[in-house]
Backbone:
């Protein structure tokens, strides 16, 4: 899975957001707010990933346990799927 092309990530007034541009803006009007782990996952998803590769990266980078990381990843992926910005490979 990966993010559809056409997003830029910017920090605006202390908040990190993903902004759709070009074709991506046709499917999503608005922004995607990203916290620290959300930005981390969004960046990883610029290239094809699996749930397991995201989990490994989260566990290697953040001080969290596997269950918490997996729940956070699944919740984030659901948000992206609902916004139609995630391509399932």
Residues:
């Amino acid at each position: 899975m990966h993010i559809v092309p056409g997003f830029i990530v910017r920090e605006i007034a202390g908040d990190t957001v993903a902004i759709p541009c070009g074709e991506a803006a046709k499917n999503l009007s608005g922004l995607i707010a990203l916290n620290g782990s959300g930005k981390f996952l969004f960046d990883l998803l610029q290239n094809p990933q699996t749930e397991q590769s995201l989990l490994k990266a989260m566990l290697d980078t953040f001080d969290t346990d596997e269950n918490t990381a997996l729940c956070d990843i699944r919740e984030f992926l659901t948000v992206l799927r609902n916004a139609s910005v995630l391509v399932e490979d």
